[in-house]
Amino acid sequence: MNNKRKIVQICVVVRDIQKSMEKYWKILGIGPWDVHTFSPETVREFTLHGQPMTKPFKFMLAVAMLGDMQFELIQPVEGLSLYENFLKEKGEGFHHIKEKVDDNDIEETLEKFKQRGVDVIVSGKFGEDVFYYLNTEPTLGIIYEIGNCGKTRAPERRYPPDMPK
Fold first, then answer.
1. Longest alpha-carbon distance in the chain
2. What is the DSSP letter of 39?
3. pTM for the full predicted model
């Protein structure tokens, strides 16, 4: 890992993504929000603790840009997930940050974390975006995500709906 590292995302897990988008928009002026669904139909090679995710799952996520940083909201909808567990244990709140790592450096970065005793909890692909959640919660209190920040599919909807991209 080098000094040119870049944190590109902060994430908050919420119970109601619509109400949360509305609050962040009305109170802080954060938005517009692009909304996506993560499910077996949209996420490829989705794994949990290194095993393919075979049970049904669905969660909604909304992203808004704050300068060059992405602010993400995630709401679990169906099936067990890290997000559902997080809500049960901690309630709504700050869940993870994401660092952009070039495709050519991902394997080496994962190996360095593994040597420090930090394993991958979740991984997958959404469009061209490749992501890995690292098990840093026991020591840092949050999950650390790395990924290539590749292009994703167009959002399913936007809030507020009349905002241009």
1. 48
2. S
3. 0.91
